[in-house]
Amino acid sequence: xxxxxxxxxxxxxxxxxxxxxxxxxxxxxxxxxxxxxxxxxxxxxxxxxxxxxxxxxxxxxxxxxxxxxxxxxxxxxxxxxxxxxxxxxxxxxxxxxxxxxxxxxxxxxxxxxxxxxxxxxxxxxxxxxxxxxxxxxxxxxxxxxxxxxxxxxxxxxxxxxxxxxxxxxxxxxxxxxxxxxxxxxxxxxxxxxxxxxxxxxxxxxxxxxxxxxxxxxxxxxxxxxxxxxxxxxxxxxxxxxxxxxxxxxxxxxxxxxxxxxxxxxxxxxxxxxxxxxxxxxxxxxxxxxxxxxxxxxxxxxxxxxxxxxxxxxxxxxxxxxxxxxxxxxxxxxxxxxxxxxxxxxxxxxxxxxxxxxxxxxx
Length: 362
Description:
The structure is a single chain. The protein is α+β, with helices and mostly antiparallel strands. The protein has helices at 40-47, 71-84, 91-99, 101-117, 137-140, 142-146, 198-240, 254-266, 268-278, 286-297, 300-303, 321-331, 339-351, 353-361; strands at residues 5-10, 13-18, 28-31, 57-68, 149-155, 165-171, 177-179, 306-307, 315-316. It has a 4-stranded antiparallel sheet with strand order 2-1-4-3. It has a 3-stranded antiparallel sheet with strand order 5-6-7, covered by helices on one side. The chain has a two-stranded parallel sheet with strand order 8-9. Strand 6 and strand 7 form a beta hairpin. Residues 248-328 form the DUF4806 domain. This is DUF4806 domain-containing protein. It holds the Pfam family DUF4806.
C-alpha cells in the first residue's frame, strides 16, 4: 500500500492512521498505547508515521474509506466522513451536504445556544443542605465535618460524545481522588441547590476548585517520586560498597590499561564506584572537567599511543571501557552534555600528549 494516510472505520468510530499500522491482511490495525490524556502525542505519531511498537494493541477494521499522500488532506476528509459517513467527491458529496443541511444547521444552533448559556450553568447533583445550616458560617461547614464521604458529580455537556462525568470523592482519612474524564466539555445540568442562594453556589465552586488544585499537586508529587525512586537503587548500591580506586591511577602503560579494562568489564560494582569517584573531579565547565579527568586517569606516556578514532596508526580511545566511564562521570554533573561536547577537549588533549611527554623528559 506504500506509506500513506488512511481513513479507517473501527468498531467505535473513524480515525486517520498511517498505512504502516495495518496488519498483513488489512483486517486490523495496531493502535498506540500512549498514557497522555490529550491527542497531541497521537497526532504526532500519525503525522510522522511512527513504526508500530510491540506493546501496541491490534483492533479489527470495519472499513477502509480511502488513502491519501497528504496528512492535512486526510484530516479534512476525516471530518467529511464523520459528518456524512462518506468521503466521495463530486455530485454525491453535494447531494449529501444538501440532505444533512438541516441537521448541521440544528447542530450549529444548539452549539451557539450552549455557548450563551455556559456562563450561567450551575453544578449538579450536590446534596441539598438543610436550610437551618446556612444561618451561620459555622453551620454551613457542618455537613462536611459530619460526613465521612462526599461525592460531587459534575455532568458535562454532550457534544458529539456521551455525557462525561467527573467525580470528586473526598475521604477524611485518604487523599482526595479526582477522576476527570473530559476537561473540554462544559458544565450543563442545573444544580439541585437553589439558584437564588449565591452563598451556596460560591461555596460549592470554592470546594471543587480546591479539589482540582489538590489533584494537580498530587500528580506533580507522584511524578517527582518516580524520578527519585529511579535514582535510588543506583545510589544505594554505591553506598553499600566503599572501594578506593585512587591507587589505580594514573594508568602508566598498556598492562595497566588492560587490567583496568578487564575490571570494568567484569566488576559492575567497581565500575559504578569508579564513576562516582571520578565525578568528584568534574567542575561546572565541561571542557575543564574532561581535561581534569584525563590527567587523573592517563599518563602522558600511555596517552601518546591513543587518538579518539585511531588516526595516525594509533589505538582507538573511543572504544575503551574507560572512555565510557569518563563520559558517564561527566554526565553526572552535566546531564545534557552531548558526545561532541565531551569528545572535543579529549581529542585535543590526546593529540598533545606527545609534546607534554617530551617536556617531562627534558
